[in-house]
Amino acid sequence: MIRAVLFDLGNTLFYEESPEKITIDILPELGKLPNYLTVYRSLGLRFDNVCEASLDAIAYYYASKSGEGRISINKAREIKEKLIESLADHLKPIKGTKEIIKKIKEKGAKVAIISNASSQEAVERALERSGIINMFDAVVTSRLIGVRKPDPRIFLYTLNLIEIKPSEAVFIGDREYEDICGAKTVGMKAIHLIRDEVKPSSCADDHIRSIQEVLKVLDL
Questions:
Q1: How many C-beta atoms surround the C-beta of residue 199 within 10 A?
Q2: 23 has a pLDDT exceeding 90
Q3: d(C-alpha 147, C-alpha 215), whole Å
């Protein structure tokens, strides 16, 4: 019997509106510098299952470049806040997300999010603006605990928070390696949410093609 349903966030419950536009052009004076994703990738801020550097690192980078090598702490803080706002604004719930979460909760199951994300604050703000943050028993990002999916520690940490055994939980996500393999490693069931032409994971217990199909494959 499943007592908890854990979800990935990006491309599972929420989608990113033009993530390439999450850029520092929100601060006009920095407009000639590389955008957020370019800096993120070029500086190697994500590597395997080690957590990506925080937004502080990116904010310091921009503060340094805009100040010709002299870092203004206040400017770095301003840039970080702008980045958090931009990240949050580009996260939008996929149609049906709120209704599915509500139905799962009505059946008595706990619900949590585990997301590889560079900002816990941005994820929380996106959930707040969508009016669903209070529906979750836990919201855990890689930035919060310092490791990324598929590292088992991020799954076990979340399960510990909500006081659920791995055998009592199912994880739903769109990535085979990070989501499906990671969840299975700790003893959870896993459902692969198929996007585009991606093939169903052979490791998954089941698969769906839209978030609306979740209740059809859950044993609640």
A1: 9
A2: no
A3: 30
DSSP code at position 205: S
* The Cα angle at residue 149 between residues 161 and 200, in degrees rounded to 5: 115
Residue with tokens 């909760």: 105
b/e per residue, 150-186, with b = 16+ CB within 10 A? Answer: bbbebbebbbeebebebebbbbbbbbbebbbbbbbbb
One-letter amino acid at 204 equals: A
Neighbour tally for 129: CB within 10 Å: 14
Could you tell me where the DSSP H helices lie in the chain?
A: 36-42, 55-66, 73-89, 97-106, 120-129, 142-145, 152-162, 182-185, 214-217
Among candidates 149, 111, 157, 117, which has minimal Cα distance to 132? 111
Tens digit of pLDDT for each residue in 124-158? Answer: 999 999 999 999 999 999 999 988 899 999 999 99
Prior bond to 150 cis, omega within 30?
A: yes
Q: What are phi and psi of 191, to 5 degrees?
A: -120, 125
d(CA 108, CA 184): 23
User: 113: pLDDT confidence band, cut at 50, 70 and 90?
Assistant: very high
Instruction: For residue 177, give the 3-state DSSP assignment.
Output: helix
**The model's pTM:** 0.91
The rounded distance, in Å, linking the Cα atoms of 79 and 179 is: 31
